[in-house]
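input
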Amino acid sequence: MEKGVKRRDEWIWLAAVLLSGLVLRASYLIELTGEPDFAHPTAIDSDYHDEWAVGLATGVWSDRLQTDPHIKDTAYFRPPGYAYFLAGVYALFGHSYLAARLIQMLFGLGTVVVLWRLGRSWLGPPVGLAAAALAATFWPFIYYEAELHEVSLLVLLAGAILLVLARQVGRPSVLAGLAAGVLIGLFAIVRPNILLFAPVGMAWCWWNLKKATGNGQQASGRRTRGARFDVVAGLVVGAVLPIIPVTVRNFAVAREFVLISSNAGMQLRIGNNIDATGLADGYLPELEELTGLDGWTTYDIPRIHRGVEREAGREMTASQVSHYFTSRTWDYIRNHPLDWLALTGRKFLFFWGPMELDSNKELHYARQESIVLRCDPVGFTPILAGAIVGIVLAWRRRNPVLQDACGEVRRGTHPTDREEVRQGTHPADREEVRRGVHPGQIGSSAQAEACGSPVAPTTVLLVLFVLFYWLSFALFSVTTRYRLPLVPALILLCAVAGVAVWKQAAQSRKGAFFATAGAWALLGLILSIRFVPYEPDLAKWHYFRGAAYERAGELERALPRYLQSLDIDPDNPRTHFSLAGVLARLGHPEEALAEWREAVRLKPDYLDAYVNMGTVLAGLGREGEAIDVLRKGIAKGSRSVAAYGNLASLLASRGELDEARKAATTGLAVHPESALLCVALGQVEARSGNLESAREQLEQAVGIDPQLPQARLNLGLVYKELGRTGDAIEQYTTLLEQSPDDVFARHNLAVALAERGDLPAAVEQFREVIKRRPDLALTHAELAAALIRERTYAEALDELKEARRLNPELARTYLYQARCLIGLGRLAEAKTAFESYLARNPGDAQAARELADLAERMGETEGAAEVQADTGDS
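output
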C-alpha cells in the first residue's frame, strides 16, 4: 500500500511539472501573439525556413527580393530536416505559424517526459522529477520553442538518443540500437554535427556491453559478445536510413555527392578568419570581393557560388565551393596559429559562458520584454554549475542519491524491472545485486551506478555526449542555438546535484550539504563571470523590433524603434538605411533621401542605398539624378538586379534606347537567369520597335519565372502588337489565375477580348476592373468603346463623362464620344468631338478619315477635302 502511494505521488508530481511547463509556454505564446514577428518572421533564419517549408508544402517557390536561392534544383546548402518538419505542419494545418509553435511547445513537453523517464530509470524517481522540472522551466527552451528554429526538435531528439542508448546498459537490443541510430540520423539531417558523436556512441555501446560480459557473466559471455556486434550494426544501419534519401536527392538534382548539405566550408570560414569575433555574425572575408555585397543571407548563396566560379575561372559544384572556403580556413590556421588559438579560446568562453547569444535577435532584451521569461530564473549557468557538481557526485559511492537507488535495487523496489528482481527471475544474479557488486545487467544503468560500479555507464554516456557535441562546434562560430541540444545531458547531471542537496538537507547532514551547495554556488559565481567582454546591444534590439514592425506593415510603430536605435548608435549605416525605407513608404521621400545619403556617407560602398535612392528620385520625376545615382552605385560595384533594371527603364523612358539596352544587357551578363532583367530588355526592344526580339526576351522571362506578373503582362502587350490576340488573351488569363486582383492584366484582357470581337466578355471584364479600381479613367473610356460597338450609346456617354472627369487630358475620350454621337444621330456634336480629338492627336489618319466621312455625310464635301489635305491623307 505504501509503495502504491509513492508511485501515485510520483505521477502527481510529474503532472504538476508538466502543468507548470504548459502554463509557462501558453503564457509566453499569448504574449508573443501581440508581437509583430509572430505572423511576420523577420529573423533571416526563420524567414528562410518559412519560405522553404511553404515551397515544399505547396510547390510554390517565391522569388524573394528577386533573389532565388535555388533550393529546389541544387544540392541542399543547409540541412533540410527542419524545413521538412515545418512543411509537414503546413501541409496538415495550412500556413499556420500558431500550429508550428504549438507543436514545437508540445515537443518541449515531450522533452520533459523523456528526461523524467531517463532520470528515473537511471537513479530513481527523485532524479527523474528534478530533471523534468528543470526542462519544463528552462527559459531558453521556452523562447526557442516559439521561434521558427530547429532547437525544440533537436533538444527532443537529443534526449531521446540518450534515453534509448541508456537502455543498452545491461540490456543489449538490436531494435534499441536501430532506434538509437535512426534518432541520430534524424538529428543529422537537421544538424549534421551529431555525426561526430555517432562513432563515440557506438564505441560506448561496445565498451558497455563488453564490460558487462567481463563481469560475472561467463555463461552468457559468447551470447553477449555477439550482441555487441548486433547492437552496433543496428545503430549504424539506423543512422544511415534517414540520411540516404537526402544524399540520393542531392545527387539526383546536382549530380554530385553531398551527404547532407554543403554549408560546412562557409561556416568554417566565418568562424576562422583574421577578423572573426567567435560569434555567428556571418562575416565572410571574401564576400565583397566575390559578390560586391557588404552582407549576405542564405538567399545570396547562388551569387556567392558564381563569384567563386569567376575567381576560379571555371564552373564548380557546391562541394567544390565549400572546399574553396575550407582551404582558406586552413590557410588562416597555418599562417596565424597563435591568433587562431586565441580565437578558439574565445569561442570556448563564449560557448560555456553566461551570455545568451543569437545572430538574429538580442536575447537579453527579448527576455527583458517578456514577463514570463523575465520571471523564469532557470538559465544555462546554474544548470552548468550543477552539472559539474553532479558529475563528481555520480562517481562517488557515498552520494546519497546513489545509495538510495542501490537500496531500492536490494529491496527490489527500483522502478526498472523491480518485479523480476524480487522474484529472482531477472537474468542478473540477485545475490550479487544484494551485495552491491553487480556491474549492472539488470536492465538499466541505474542498478550498476546505484550499487557502486566504479565507472557508471550512463554517467559516461552523458559526459561523452556533452564533450563531443561541444567539440563538433569548436571550429565554428558560437550562438545559443548551437549549445542547447547538449542541455538535456547537463540537466540530468544537474538533477543529481539537486537531489543530493535536497537529501543532505533532509537527513541533516550539514557538512555534506554545505560542501555540495557551496561548491554549486561557487561554480555558479565563477561561471557567471564574463571572461570575454560582451554587452547586450540595445541598439540592435531596437533595430530588430523596428524591422519586425516594418515587415508586419506597422510602419508608424517601426519608425520610433529605428529612431531609438539611432539615438544609441547614430553611426550605424544599416539603421539609417532601414529608417529611410520606412520614411519613403510613409510618404516622406525627401527625408528618406537624407537618411540614405547619411548611410552612404557612413559607408560609401552601401550599394543598396544607391539603388533605393535612384528608385525614389525616379518617382519624384528627377530622372537625371536617379540615373546618375544608379550609375554611381553600379560603378562602385553594385550588381543588383534592381540597379540594372531601374537604370534601363529610366533610360528607355528618356528615349536613350541604346544606353537602356546596354544597361539591361550588362545586368543579364551578371544575372543570366533574372526574369526581371529579361523583362527590362524586352521593354526596351518593344520601345525600339523590335517586337520579335522583345517577344523572345519576354518569353524567356516567363520561362524563368512563370509567377512574375510583369513578364506575362508585357508579353501579352507584345503579342497583341504582333497580331497574336489569342496568345495575348492566354497570357492575361494565366496571370489572372495567379493574381486575381491584378487590374491591369484584367484591363488588358478586356481590351484584347474586345479586339477579338467578344464584346460581352470584354464588357464584363471592364466592369470588374471598375469595381476594383473606379479611378482608372482609361478603363471607363475603353468600356465606353465596347458599349458603342454594342450600340449601348447612352451608357457609353456616361462612362465617357466619368473618364473625362477623372482625366480631362485623355484624348481618346473625344474620339469615342464622336463615334457614340454618330450612333445617336447627333452628327454636328460628333463633328465637334472629332475636331477636339484631332486637335490633340493631329497625326491620327484613321480619325481624320472618320471625320471626312462624317463631313461628306453631312453634305460638306469641300470641308472633307480640306481635312484630308491638312492631314496629308491621299
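quick obs: The two ends are 117 Å apart (CA to CA).
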